[in-house]
Amino acid sequence: MTGEIETLADLSKHYKDSVPADLREAKSFEWYLEEVYAHPKIARNAHQRVADMFDFYGTRYDEDAGVVEYLMASEDPLHDGENVFYGREVHESIHEFVNKVKSGARGLGPEKRIKLLLGPVGSGKSHFDWISRRYFEDYTMSDEGRMYTFRWTNLGDVIRDQDPSDDVVQSPMNQDPLVLLPQEQRDVVIKQLNENLDAPYTIRNDQALDPASEFYMDRLLAHYDDDLEEVVANHIEVIRLVASENKRQCIETFEPKDKKNQDETELTGDVNYSKLAVYGESDPRAFDYAGAFCNANRGIFSGEELLKLQREFLYDFLHASQEQTIKPKNNPRIDIDQVIVGRTNMPEYREKKGDEKMEAFNDRTKRIDFPYVLEYEQEAEIYRKMLRNADVPDIHVEPHTLEMSGLFGVLTRIVEPDSDTISLVQKAKAYNGELDDGDDVDVRKLREEGEKKADIAEGMDGVSARFIGDEIAEAIMDATHRGRGYLSPLSSFTHLEENLENHGSIPEENLERYHRYLEMVREEYKERAIEDVRHALAYDIDEIRRQGEKYMDHVMAYIDDATVEDELTGRDQEPDEKFLRAVEEKLNIPEDRKDDFRQEVSNWVSRRAREGTSFNPQDNDRLRRALERKLWEDKKHNINFSALVSANELDDDERNAWIDALVDQGYSRDGAREVLEFAGAEVAKTELEG
Question: Of 40, 223, 232, 268, which sits with the fewest C-beta atoms within 10 Å of its C-beta?
Answer without folding.
Answer: 223
